[in-house]
Design brief:
The chain contains 22 helices and 26 strands. By secondary structure, it is of the alpha/beta class. The strands form seven sheets. A six-stranded mixed β-sheet has the order 11-16-15-14-12-13, sandwiched between helices. The longest helix has 17 residues, at 144-160. It is globular. The relative contact order is 0.10. It binds beta-D-glucopyranose. Beta-D-glucopyranose binds next to loops. This is beta-glucosidase. InterPro entries: Cellulose_Degrad_GH3, Fn3-like, GH, Glyco_hydro_3_AS, Glyco_hydro_3_C, Glyco_hydro_3_C_sf, Glyco_hydro_3_N, Glyco_hydro_3_N_sf. It holds the Pfam family Glyco_hydro_3_C. GO terms for molecular function: beta-glucosidase activity. Belongs to the glycosyl hydrolase 3 family.
Length: 772
């Protein structure tokens, strides 16, 4: 049903009505460095009508009561209601469904003076109700088209449910497996985070933010959140200029250039300055140098948290620091609403700063089309038709199977024949219908995923006997529906081994064992750091007991972080990394297990031998005494290898690939020139399969020490048995430049190495020089 009364008809200023309505149908593709003139005129005309309390109100974001992800607000619903009625709220988060969103929007429309519509935000991280693999898992597909497609579906379901804005993608480069939020990003590499982040932004936002099926994206957390010391969430970050500019910021720069409508700042401090109060980051770099005109929202309560950091005396001081630093919207700190007006009167902040922040909010509301119709996204029929549809679930299955990484397949145990007499499906996650949804599952319903047990049953014929045993419980108590998982302490079962006997019994009588172990949904995500990244509870005991009676073990891993697989990889012939794959998890895993899909995923993070190696990443810098085969104790460990157990970029297939004839079309270029790199990739096995061909470079001498290898491109190709394809990459100025000691992005002349291969340990190498 279309709402008949447009809000602007209720604003008594007729010239404004004319301006707004006459520009109604144009495309509002967000270009956050080039402003859309007609939108700017409208923004100015609204701004001209606003009183100071209304301006400040636009900079306030409240949460609904639901799904609080931080310390719950001290202000009650009554306070929020009054503020909404006065038009002193710009946005709400955590209100979902068309009915609730309409009801909340109505409060503003019916009571406030200017009737400026609210924007509704929600953490749609890997799907709305149709749940896709966790972002780390999806990144393992190295398939930018399907990543974009899954974001587009998440946007469609969200927009059809009344939402306008997601707090995604997270593009924090994350290199410490102890950090629970590793699951939420694209792993350890800046290039991969940049291209995957852009794919997600394009998926969420489409070409036109005012389209009924698109939503605004939010690049987060600006910046450095993935570098928390010791992998502890929210922790202090100590990085210098080189690391900040060359590792942390590139994905954000790419997001700004791709037109991400919003950014979120971060909880952490960077070298002593909380990101929320970081003027250099937000005003000078993001809004200055990058000329980005979008909206910066604080993280939940992060303005107020500057008091705990010891950076602000009180909330008033925190509000002053945050606004001055360029944080436009206050999520749940209640600092802006309480103090900005006084700070303005005291001249501690300026009206230009407030107006600039308000403009950014209004601009987004115009881009979303909310001024044309504040109920534009409130249509129950659309909600019914689009959310959790069969088509969306089919895409979720496709994305999930492409995200699976085959880590080991020694005896060629996989793929399994569908004609096997018996299969044991064992483990605490084997029939878990909830963990595959992962953390941050938006409206994904408790226990709604296809478990692996179900997936296997769906795949095989009647002649195959499936024997199931849980073996052990991972946690105590089992996670209950409706509980606030964010606050729930996890207790691992380390005493009850009574189920292991049955697991052994079923393993004994089966041809093969699928052992489904790893982490449950809430072991990763916000506030979920761990010092133990192995198999918690009694899972190791289960593995050893099953191994004793049946050596044909396929470990099916479900997890949200790189795990310590040292013992598992010693004994199990096959390991399949299945992350938390979302709604269709079990079916997607069965597609791979039975060979209907040939696995093609590659790791976006290094898997260590043990937690003591963390943070572990391939693109490290050399020391003055580099580790080598000759000098294994140099810059390494006495009690463990230095290298990864499973390196970045690694993943097997049911076929094999060989690389050869690496060619550069020149040996020397100028900084502005380019070099064509080509390589022949051959499918040397007997099945068709996909391979992710990866390009790495090293700048051998730099004014800042450069990483030993840096990913600079990749292409996923399909090859039939025996087929060879030539894959080409172009290396140019953009590939070679970095943020140098001159504090600028430039190419420094000198020698470069270039490698191509199927993972980051490739040795297929050539060299070239950049000359002045
Ligand atoms: C998280 C953000 C999230 C926000 C709103 C915070 O705790 O750090 O990533 O978007 O909550 O739910």
């Amino acid at each position: 049903m279309k709402i008949a009364i447009l809000p602007f008809k209720l604003i008594i200023i007729s010239s404004l009505i004319f301006t707004v309505l006459s520009c109604k149908n144009e495309t509002t593709k967000p270009k956050h460095s080039t402003l859309n003139e007609s939108i700017e005129i409208k923004v100015d005309s609204v701004l001209a009508l606003m009183q100071i309390n209304e301006k400040i109100g636009q900079l306030v974001q409240y949460s609904g009561k639901w799904n609080a992800t931080g310390p719950s607000s001290t202000k009650g619903d009554q306070h929020k209601l009054e503020k909404l009625k006065k038009g002193e709220v710009g946005s709400m988060l955590n209100i979902t469904s068309v009915a609730s969103i309409r009801e909340t929007q109505k409060i503003v429309m019916e009571h406030s003076r200017l009737k400026i519509p609210l924007i509704f935000a929600y953490d749609v991280i890997h799907g709305y109700k149709t749940i896709f693999p966790i972002p780390l898992g999806e990144t393992a597909s190295w398939d930018l088209n399907i990543i974009k497609q899954s974001a587009a579906i998440a946007a469609k379901e969200s927009a059809a449910s009344g939402l306008n804005w997601t707090f995604a993608p997270m593009i924090d480069v994350s290199r410490d497996a102890r950090w629970g939020r590793v699951m939420e990003g694209a792993g350890e590499d800046p290039y991969l985070n940049a291209v995957v982040g852009v794919a997600r932004i394009e998926g969420f936002q489409g070409d036109d933010l005012s389209h009924i099926y698109t939503i605004a994206a939010c690049a987060k957390h600006f910046a450095g959140y993935g570098f928390g010391e010791a992998g502890r969430d929210y922790n202090t970050v100590n990085v210098g200029t080189n690391e900040l500019h060359n590792t942390i910021l590139p994905p954000f720069k790419a997001a700004a250039e791709a037109g991400a409508a919003t950014f979120m700042n971060a909880f952490n401090d960077i070298d002593g300055i909380p990101a929320t109060g970081h003027k250099i980051l937000q005003r000078d770099i993001l809004k200055g140098e990058w000329n980005w005109n979008g909206l910066v929202v604080s993280d939940w309560g992060s303005i107020g948290e500057m008091r705990a950091h010891g950076y602000a005396e009180d909330k008033k001081h925190a509000a002053e620091i945050a606004l001055n630093a360029g944080s436009d919207m206050d999520m749940e700190s209640y600092a802006y609403e309480a103090h900005l007006e006084t700070l303005l009167n005291e001249k501690k902040i300026s009206i230009h700063q407030i107006d600039d922040a308000v403009r950014r909010v209004l601009r987004l509301k115009f881009e979303l089309g909310l001024f044309d119709d504040p109920y534009k996204y409130c249509n129950e029929q659309r909600e019914k038709d689009n959310v959790y549809s069969k088509e969306n679930l089919a895409v979720a299955r496709d994305v999930a199977k492409k995200s699976i990484v085959l880590l080991k397949n020694e005896k060629g145990l996989l793929p399994l024949s569908k004609q096997l007499k018996s299969i044991a499906v064992i483990g605490p996650l084997a029939d878990d219908k909830d963990s595959p949804l992962g953390n941050w599952r938006a409206k994904g319903e408790y226990n709604s995923a296809v478990s692996l047990l179900e997936g296997v049953k769906n795949a095989v014929g009647k002649n195959t006997k499936i024997h199931y045993a849980k073996g052990v419980d991972l946690t105590i108590p089992t996670i209950e529906p409706g509980a606030n998982q964010f606050l729930l302490p996890l207790k691992f079962n380390t005493t009850d081994d009574s189920g292991i006997a049955k697991a052994v019994e079923v393993a004994k009588k089966s041809d093969v064992v699928l052992l489904v172990i790893g982490e449950n949904a809430y072991q990763t995500g916000e506030g979920r750091s761990q010092t133990n990244i192995g198999f918690l509870g009694l899972q190791n005991e289960l593995l050893e007991a099953v191994y004793k009676v049946n050596k044909n073990i396929v470990i099916v891993l479900m997890n949200g972080r790189p795990m310590d697989l040292s013992r598992a990889s010693e004994i199990a012939p096959t390991i399949l990394e299945c992350w938390h794959l979302g709604s269709e998890s079990g079916n997607a895993i069965a597609d791979v297990v039975f060979g209907d899909y040939n696995p093609s995923g590659k790791l976006p993070v290094s898997f260590p031998h043990n937690v003591g190696q963390e943070p572990l990443y391939y693109n490290q810098k050399n020391t003055g005494r580099p580790y080598s085969n000759k000098h294994v104790t140099f810059s390494g460990y006495r009690d463990a290898p230095k290298k990864a157990l499973y390196p970045f970029g690694f993943g097997l297939s049911y076929t094999t690939f060989s690389y050869g004839d690496l060619q550069l079309d020149k040996n020397e270029i100028k900084a502005s020139g380019d070099i064509k790199v080509s390589v022949n990739v051959t499918n040397t096995g007997d099945r068709a399969g996909e391979e992710v061909v990866q390009l790495y470079i090293r700048d051998l001498v730099g004014s800042f020490v450069r990483p030993v290898k840096e990913l600079k491109g990749f292409e996923k190709i399909m090859l039939n048995p025996g087929e060879t394809k030539t894959v080409s990459f172009t290396i140019n100025e953009k590939t070679l430049q970095f943020y140098t000691a001159n504090n600028t992005w430039e190419v420094e002349p000198g020698k470069f190495n270039v490698w191509v291969g199927g993972d980051s340990t490739t040795t297929l190498k050539k060299s070239f020089s950049v000359v002045e």
